[in-house]
């Protein structure tokens, strides 16, 4: 457990530092927002592009991993929507954000540094495939269901799909992944000065992103609805990794290291933009509370899960 904590504790301490810095006004909240935008628009895209562009295409996309992670995320999404619909006695279309909260991990900000330190650079392709799952499947599905619920037959289906495609298609992380895949497929290399610039940007990603998470948490208001928020937290930290574990039992051919990466990624807190997207549809209160609760509890559940599954344990 001490060996695991030596890896995970610095990650959560950086998040805590960002939280305290904003709460104690050592840094203005706008500063944390600016850091988050820097990570999203520059550092993380550079990191993902740098990781992908230096690999061969056939080593990046692993069908067995995609089968495990996509299936686990979609099953967990369905569980979230179904349980919320029964509990709230509302349409499944009105509960898309419950599914998103259970199934969309913070693979970019937390998953990348955690997988890199626990499993090494060879496992980072798992992070990329998880991000593709989240950006190309979970996020669009949530937006489509929510848009259809809001329109309730009044709007054009094509117009709704167009809005979703614009949201997804302009995501800088997805664009960086696409560019990295093109470079990997064609064997291209950037000129040395540009490549070095990308590497410098990539090197700043982890620290800035983790600090920004803490700053964003400091800006979240924990209000009522603790019951639903706690249920989302439990689903994200317990149900998602358990479903992933079940899928791994059904796909024994997956490389063990990538299997461990799938468990790590499934056990992470949900993505930081979860309440921000929900807020656009007047559903931000429960997601904001769930994000804070999940991030706090993740330090316990993630370390316990790593210890139980023997991930990151020497020997």
Automatic annotation (TrEMBL):
Organism of derivation: Allochromatium humboldtianum
The keyword Cell division belongs to this UniProt entry's keyword annotation: no
Transmembrane regions listed in the UniProt entry: 34-53, 65-87, 123-146, 167-188, 200-219, 231-251, 257-278, 290-309
The name this protein goes by in its record: AEC family transporter
A Pfam family it matches: Mem_trans
The organism's place on the tree of life at top rank: Bacteria
Compartments where found: Membrane
Gene Ontology biological process terms in this record: transmembrane transport
InterPro entries xref list: Mem_transp_PIN-like
Coiled-coil regions listed: none
Membrane topology: Multi-pass membrane protein
Cellular compartments per GO CC: membrane
UniProt keyword annotations, A-Z: Cell membrane, Membrane, Transmembrane, Transmembrane helix, Transport
């Amino acid at each position: 457990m001490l060996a695991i904590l030596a890896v995970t504790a610095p990650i959560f301490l950086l998040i805590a530092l960002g939280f305290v810095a904003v709460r104690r006004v050592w840094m203005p909240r706008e500063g944390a927002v600016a850091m988050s935008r820097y990570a999203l628009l520059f550092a993380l895209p550079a990191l993902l592009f740098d990781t992908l562009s230096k690999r061969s295409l056939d080593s990046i996309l692993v069908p067995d991993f995609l089968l495990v992670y996509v299936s686990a995320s979609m099953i967990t999404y369905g569980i979230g929507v179904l349980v919320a619909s029964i509990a709230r006695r509302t349409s499944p279309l009105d509960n898309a954000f419950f599914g998103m909260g259970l199934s969309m991990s913070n693979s970019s900000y937390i998953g990348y540094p955690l997988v890199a330190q626990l499993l090494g650079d060879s496992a980072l392709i798992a992070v990329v495939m998880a991000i593709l799952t989240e950006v190309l499947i979970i996020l669009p599905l949530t937006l489509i269901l929510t848009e259809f619920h809001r329109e309730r037959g009044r709007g054009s289906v094509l117009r709704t799909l167009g809005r979703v495609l614009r949201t997804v298609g302009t995501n800088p992380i997805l664009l960086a992944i696409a560019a990295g895949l093109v470079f990997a497929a064609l064997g291209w290399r950037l000129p040395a000065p540009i490549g070095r610039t990308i590497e410098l940007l990539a090197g700043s990603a982890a620290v800035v992103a983790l600090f920004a998470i803490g700053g964003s948490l400091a800006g979240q208001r924990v209000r009522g609805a603790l019951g639903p928020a706690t249920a989302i937290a439990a689903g994200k930290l317990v149900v998602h990794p358990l479903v992933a574990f079940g899928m791994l039992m059904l796909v024994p051919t997956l490389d063990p290291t990538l299997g461990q990466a799938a468990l790590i990624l499934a056990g992470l807190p949900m993505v930081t933009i979860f309440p921000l997207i929900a807020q656009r549809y007047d559903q931000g209160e429960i997601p904001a509370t769930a994000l804070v609760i999940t991030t706090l509890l993740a330090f316990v559940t993630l370390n316990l899960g790593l210890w139980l599954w023997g991930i990151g344990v020497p020997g």
